[in-house]
């Protein structure tokens, strides 16, 4: 195998992407499908799942299948894995992507229910999914892989976004611990830490932060970009490309790492 060939994942990988019917998750799912993987996604949004199923209905090869499920609900996670067994017959790669932005506000003003929801969706769900995935990954043909979506907020402090940041730091701890635990079984575990990623989600975050600080959206966006060394947002495709590399032969020696794909965000 040449070095160039090592940059592409093996064809036929069985991949599960949580939160995979929109945003970064959907871009990752389609990237794996384009690389010849068999992909199943789950998502909590009926509208997003319906749109994906409709779009995939016209695809004859490597169509992406989907389950409507909120992975913060353990019963829903069981349904997802029942579908994974039916659709894929096993699992080689888990992309633990599902997450929410959580509330924006000073710590003394945050609603406890919103804190708990952020922890449930961003952290507890990763645990629920990983614990069900690992028994399948132990039988992966080329050695299993888990990629957890953290955030640049998982390596930097993030004022007024404490629920989000706390969960993204915790994901890194979970990743590094699982890499040690599962390494002897040939399962690699890494985290990707996206930065300011283009799309509707970051637009909502910037708007909420601008309102919190009494700034215009344009000024808040300018402030965000000024904190990035490359002075631009990251694209979902750049995040997906990193996920593909980590699951390729070229990435087979990488485990226990939190890899920032962010243009070098200097401060949040």
UniProtKB/TrEMBL annotation:
InterPro entries for this protein: NAD(P)-bd_dom_sf, Sc_DH/Rdtase_CS, SDR_fam
Family annotation (Pfam families): adh_short_C2
Keyword Oxidoreductase included in the entry's annotation: yes
GO MF: oxidoreductase activity
Keywords assigned by UniProt, alphabetized: Oxidoreductase
Keyword match Cytoplasm: no
Similarity comment: Belongs to the short-chain dehydrogenases/reductases (SDR) family.
Listed NCBIfam families: PRK12826.1-2
Name assigned to this protein: 3-ketoacyl-ACP reductase
């Amino acid at each position: 195998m040449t070095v160039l060939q090592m940059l592409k994942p093996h064809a036929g990988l069985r991949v599960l992407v949580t939160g995979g019917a929109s945003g970064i998750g959907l871009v990752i799912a389609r990237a794996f499908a384009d690389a010849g993987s068999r992909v199943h996604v789950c998502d909590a949004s009926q509208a997003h799942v319906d749109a994906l199923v409709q779009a995939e209905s016209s695809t004859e090869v490597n169509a992406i299948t989907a389950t409507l499920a909120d992975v913060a609900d353990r019963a829903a996670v069981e349904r997802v894995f029942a579908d994974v067994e039916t659709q894929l017959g096993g699992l080689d790669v888990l992309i633990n992507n599902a997450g929410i932005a959580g509330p924006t506000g000073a710590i003394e003003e945050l609603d406890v229910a919103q804190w708990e929801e952020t922890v449930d969706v961003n952290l507890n769900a990763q645990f629920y999914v990983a614990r069900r995935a690992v028994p399948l990954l132990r039988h992966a043909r080329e050695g299993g892989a888990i990629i957890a979506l953290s955030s640049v907020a998982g390596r930097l402090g993030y004022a007024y976004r404490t629920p989000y940041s706390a969960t993204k730091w915790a994901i890194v701890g979970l990743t590094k611990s699982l890499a040690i635990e599962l390494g002897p079984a040939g399962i690699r575990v890494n985290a990707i830490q996206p930065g300011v990623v283009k799309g509707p989600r970051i637009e909502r975050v910037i708007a909420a932060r601008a309102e919190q600080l009494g700034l215009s959206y344009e000024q808040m966006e300018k402030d965000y970009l000024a904190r990035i060394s490359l002075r631009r947002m990251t694209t979902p495709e750049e995040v997906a490309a990193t996920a593909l590399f980590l699951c390729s032969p070229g990435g087979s020696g990488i485990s226990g790492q939190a890899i920032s794909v962010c243009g070098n965000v200097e401060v949040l």
